Amino acid sequence: MSSLPTNAASVIRTPLDAFIIQFAARFGEKSKEVERFLKFAVVGVIGAVVDFGTLFILQATILPPTSAFFVVSATTLAFVAAIISNFTWNRLWTYPDSRSRSVRRQLAQFTFISVVGWLGRTIWITASYLWLGALLMPVLLPEIRLLRPDYVPSATAEAKLGTIAAQVVGVIVVMFWNFFANRYWTYNDVQ
Question: pTM of the predicted model, to two decimals?
Answer without folding.
Answer: 0.70
